[in-house]
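Anyone else keep sequences and structure tokens together like this?

Example one:
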Amino acid sequence: MTTMKPSVSVIGIGQMGLGIANNIQNAGYLNSIFEINTSLLSQLENDNDIIVNNPKLGLISSNILIFVVPSTQQIRDFLFSADWIDNIEENTIIIDLTTSNPDETKKLSKELSKRKINYIDCGMTGGAQGAEKGTLTLMMGGKKNIIKSVTPVLESFTNRLIHVGITGSGHALKLIHNMVTHTIFLATVEGVIGAKKLGIDPEVVIDVFNSGNARSYISESRFPNHILSEKWDARSRVSNLFKDLSMVTNLLNDNEIGCPYGELTTDILKNAVSEGLAEVDFSLLYNEYEKLIDK
């Protein structure tokens, strides 16, 4: 594996997968893509030599498979429902870029190991813009030697790779990362709204936050670029946030680890979903926050 040129299949080219696939293509490693939403295929750059939506041929001719789908369950569906798993050569490396329950991650890894297929779970941070620019950060779980062998491919769409532990660790840390991020988001929303009601301009509030200890990615990027600008284009749906927060609070509770702030964030997101906001951009929660906390 380490002596072969990387030949990569990307499965899933949605908001994250498209940028990742384009960067892998520009690095000269992309062999095939698979996407059930065929309208997205035209957005791939320079795709003349790429195998498109032919899993059998794509899997046989690839030694690295990168899944950019909602969860590990979608990977299972792809591999096992049509027996595509039988077309994957031994020593192939599967890179799981989903946001998933690490318990399911570990189960899948064990099943693949029996077939002598390697597996890395990678949590991503940086969003769709980071995928496009090739500036994602990956938190990776799995064997160091396997990660090292695919580093050139990973570096084509990231600017930082962090090995965080054994299989499942990447997805576990990603969930915790999201819990902290979305809790900070709602806390910042609450602070800005509270200050506004006391007569303080939201732009002034954010300026002060960014000059003091309340500074965060939320105050430095999300508010100026997506909320105060009224663009409302943070490019992730409320349903995605609720899914992740439900998953991480369940994981922590199952392991008897308290997470009261995470549970409060989950409850607010649950209220948003029940109010019909599941498919809207999460930046719009700023406009709905007071109604959501009154429920």
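And example two:
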Amino acid sequence: MIVKNIKSNKIASEARLNSGYFLNEDAINSSILEQNINNCDALSDLADVWNPPIFKRQFSQKTDKSTQYCQSSDVPNSFEGNDVYINKNQADKVNALVKENQILITGFGTIGNTRIVNKISDGICYANNVCRVDVRDKGQYGYVYAVLTSKYGYSQLNKNASGSVVRYIEAPGIKKTLIPKFDENFRNRIHNLIIESTNLKVESNLILDSALKDLKSNVGLKELDPIDYEYFGNHSENRQTSTFIKSINDISNLSINAFNYSEKIEKLSSEVKQNKYLSLGDCLDKNQFFSTGSFRRLEIQSKKAIKLLNQSDIFNFRKVGKNLSRRYVKSDRLVEYGEVLIAGVGTLGEGETFCRTIFANEELANQLVAGEFIRMKTNEKTPSGYLFCWLSSDYGFRLIRSTQTGTKLCRPIQEFLKDIPVPILEKSIMDRIDSKVKKAHSMLYQALLKENQAIDLVEKEIEEWEK
């Protein structure tokens, strides 16, 4: 229960009598800045803020004339870009392409997720319900980002949002956000921390990309084209229907789904098997595939709580999760460093997380993940970072997807999953790729620590106004 005195003139100015309007976390956080408005600038005074217009999207394949298309749900992601492409010229005409150092803010559904556009994402397209913030002083965009990402920025964005069932906010509401006018040295310190964090994220993505190229070049695999695999979603009108004939002797008693027996996928598998390989099951320890399992979930608000991460959280850079009591959580359920996880439930959209892999870095170690994840620990035959690199590649992802079963919510058939081929290279090469993957994920964790440090400093400085 929240108990607080609200001045009568505040009630009169807002023309509201319901206590919930004044006594919720967003309102209380926002009121601290509103009461110190003379010490703040409106976001509109510091930056150009806008949403591109609604436009009919022309989806396409990956070509020189296309660019990646990201939705608002992609804003909080740890990694850059998407596998969905759109006509670049069309996006450019409506000013939907983002530029380096812009701040992106989600304004539909989940409001207040933020992202800084780095040099990797420079020039890709985001949906029109993602607001663009272009800070005029290029030496301060990191500071503005930290304020917007803090609980005080998040609360202001949600307080100014409209809608009951589906909440939304666009540029006119976002412009009202108050940014504290702290001294220049403090702002520069925050800005520099955010820049360091952004640079670490960029370097992490580049190292992972290097590891993937290293793996594929040593195995002798090409970049996949959409014609090489089966998928659901937008496709060219010239795409031919995939048909094939299978002997009844080749049909497993586990599935009669044609997707599981695709000749295109069999061809990909055969390409991998031309070199030395092991089945995925042979790369794992005695536990093979396992999950966290089910347990009683008691949500609490305590510093001693443990965070439960589900599929909608774990791919995000800033993971929210749910705080649960440790009483019902056994220590052997917690994630260990180096585990490889597969998102085990979902739909088959190209932009969905279903069947995508996660490497358990320092951030995920000793964390609790939902039971929907397929968890794996490697044996001495394959390093964990190397296995992650393979399963996160286009070949690995398509091979995992080919094992799916289900209608709306799909799941991999684990008997098929364990037979996925994993290329085996010289130990020195696999160790090199493994080191790259682990280094990249450690850098991603360091980037998070830098960002958290900046945000904590901003929040503590604002809290000083209450004393």
